[in-house]
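Handout, section 3.2

Students often ask what a structure token actually looks like in practice. Rather than define it abstractly, here is a full record for Lipoprotein signal peptidase. The first block is the sequence as you would receive it.
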Amino acid sequence: MHPTRRVPGRLQTIAFALAALIAVVDQAAKAAARAQLDAPINLTPFLALRLGFNPGVTFGLFAGSGAVGRWALSAVASLIIGALLAWIWRTRSAVTAAAAGLIAGGAIGNLVDRLRFGAVTDFIDLHWGAAHWPTFNLADAAIVCGVALLLLTVRGSDSRAASSTLGRAAR
């Protein structure tokens, strides 16, 4: 007897495609930034394109950890990506699948950089006057959007659960 293999449904296919699209677009944008950004380009009073490389993670954490740190970060990122892809495979929620796809795609884009160059390519510089937000890339933006989407979903489901509980208690 052969075990039944689950075939990805439309929801999973779209989420996997979203992850792949994010990773590919991110890599293309980073390649263009590495090739073209010799000097910063000011687009608006608060947005510039400025090439940078981050050997660490968010806000430069673990930047000084060397090759061992780079491989450790890559291993952790690989485990997280695997967990996100498994989550996409099992979920029945379109919002959860989209959020996990955004996060996985961003994580894949940054992992590719870390493995190829030893650092993640950043190029988007948001600033107000002399105050600069840490430079980031499209993968980072996708990760933040995916996490925000998950948080909004959890918050919304918590609110619905609380309303339902209060409604039952009032009866």
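Discussion prompt for tutorial groups: Helices lie at 10-36, 66-90, 94-117, 138-170. How would you have guessed this from the sequence alone?
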